[in-house]
Design brief:
Radius of gyration: 30 Å
Structural class: mainly alpha
Number of helices: 3
Length: 104
């Protein structure tokens, strides 16, 4: 048969359990905050990537600045179906892959 706990022992056990619960909730909040931080980081990296690509396009084709977003998309769709452009893009990708993956 187990020994019955006294009221002070039970109160001490409750206090310890409440402290442990608070610590676990704090740990959970830290993990949630970390997940949000990493998600935001990925969005920031993507935004930075898109901004630098857009700036590169505007620097090599300054006239693109005056186009609306719809006009620019229409232009890009037409440009990227041209065989010469497809070939240049494929050439750039192949060169990138050689450097990235060490293909000789």
């Amino acid at each position: 048969m187990t020994k019955q706990k006294t009221i002070p022992e039970l109160k001490a056990e409750i206090t310890a359990n409440e402290r442990q619960l608070a610590q676990l909730r704090h740990k959970q909040q830290q993990l949630e905050n970390r997940a949000v931080y990493y998600e935001k980081g990925d969005r920031r990296k993507r935004a930075h990537h898109l901004i630098t690509r857009g700036a590169a396009i505007e620097s090599v084709a300054p006239l693109a600045k005056i186009l609306t977003e719809t006009e620019f998309y229409a232009f890009a769709e037409k440009a990227f179906v041209l065989p010469e452009v497809k070939g240049l893009l494929m050439e750039a990708v192949n060169e990138h892959n050689k450097i990235e993956f060490g293909d000789d």
